[in-house]
Amino acid sequence: MTLRYLTAGESHGPALVGILDGMPAGVEICEDDFTRLMRRRWSGYGRGQRRDIEKDQVEVLSGIVAGKTTGSPISLLIRNQDFDSNKSTMAPFGRTSSRSKITVPLPGHADFAGAVKFGFDDCRLIRERASARETAMRVALSVPARNLLQALDISFTCLVESVGGIAAAIDYNQDPEILAAATAENFEEFLTPDSSVCDKWKELIDRCASEGKSLGGTAAVIFWNLPVGLGCHTQADLRLDAIIAGLIMSIPAVKSVEIGCFREPGRQIGAGGDALHYQDGRGFFHSTNSAGGIEGGMTNAEPLVVRFHVKPLPGGTRVESVNLETLAPEFPAFYRSDTQIMPAAALVAESMVAIEIASQLLKMTGGADFDTISERFASERLMKKGG
Predict the structure, then answer these.
(1) Cα–Cα distance measured from residue 80 to residue 60, given in angstroms and rounded to the nearest whole number
(2) What is the 3-state secondary structure (H, E, C) of 217-244?
């Protein structure tokens, strides 16, 4: 058994919808699990006006009864409050005004490539689906997977490493629980364990917002207490690092992904591996974790560390483009945007990895209900611990 999901909906359409298939029966979920997570998605200093419009209340349509998953597909709905102001351009039926067309692609967005691919002269039809608004549903769909992992004593966190080239001081060698606790203290604004960098980030964000510029940055996701052997080396598409990299790259504006810390200058010369040890009562362990918890496409029981880079967002910036109707050079119209989205991007990445890790655990243990999965997982972990 594995998990699969689909989402649908446009940024300013009536709603976002999603289906998560493959979740076993008996996983406990409460309404507040959705509420708290969706509220976290809107956190972060420098977010745009859309945050003040949308409530992101998740409606559960199927798959959860009396606070537990039933084993059937879980279907969710999030209504877009901003649809009321966009009915003339986004209504499913009826004619739209020619004045609503967006004929000048926004560089850095999916506008140009999508319009050419689908034969449109209206970029709105591409932009609405390519918008990062879609990730709200991906975050919501991760709730059952998150609850399954936590019930199996698997913990995780996400954090922001840098904004606009200003880096936080982060030590990945410290205990993940300590790192997560420090990050939680700053989750409302920046989701970073380094409180000392927050004022610098605020100053930079305020300056860029006043100049109509946006900021990229780097973020990371950490999962710990994972078993040995999630993923597989036998085929390229089974390697867990390859799967995770693809999932993170599917998040709008993400341009690179790294597993572990080998990109750092001091780690580019050496043995290329983390020393392996064994100790009675502890089992197998590595003295360092440069590999980020994955070797040969499989987890090695060390913390899984996924780092990724986000480019500056298109929107308020003035970058020359071309009118698709006249073929004349033209600047795109102003498009409402965030100045920076690093905390939200980190949360979306955490959500994507949570769904995949849960899927890999289901593949490892089998079983259609939580009690069976929990029993088999405990046996699997004990057997592979080696001590």
Answers:
(1) 15
(2) EEEEEEEECCCEEEECCCCHHHCHHHHH
Express each pLDDT in 168-189 by its tens digit. Answer: 999 888 888 999 999 998 878 8
Sign of the CA dihedral running 86, 89, 94, 95: positive
Whole-number pLDDT of residue 98 = 57
List pLDDT tens digits, range 289-318: 989 999 999 999 999 999 999 999 886 667
Domain, as residue range, for 362: 4-385
Helix (H, G, I), strand (E, B) or coil at 177: helix
Mean pLDDT to the nearest integer, 36-40: 94
Count of domains for the chain: 1
What are 5-29's pLDDT values in tens digits?
999 999 999 999 999 999 999 999 9
Among residues 150, 169, 133, 116, the alpha carbon closest in space to that of 51 is found at 133
Helix (H) or strand (E) holding 129: helix 124-130
* For residue 259, pLDDT beyond 90: yes
CA–CA gap between residue 146 and residue 155 (Å, rounded): 9
Instruction: State the Cα–Cα distance between residues 43 and 188, nearest whole angstrom.
Output: 5
Backbone angles phi, psi at 60, to 5 degrees: -90, 120
pTM: 0.94
Strands of the sheet containing 166-167, edge to edge, are 166-167, 155-163, 217-224, 304-310, 254-259
Q: Measured between alpha carbons, how far is 201 from 163 in angstroms, rounded to an integer?
A: 7
Q: How confident is the model at residue 387 (pLDDT cuts 50, 70, 90)?
A: very low
Residue 215 to residue 193: CA distance in whole angstroms: 20
| Nearest-angstrom CA–CA distance, 329 and 320 | 7
Provide φ and ψ at 323, rounded to 5°: -70, 120
Amino acid of residue 30: C
8 Å CB contact between 147 and 29: yes
Q: Which CATH number fits the domain that encloses residue 108?
A: 3.60.150.10
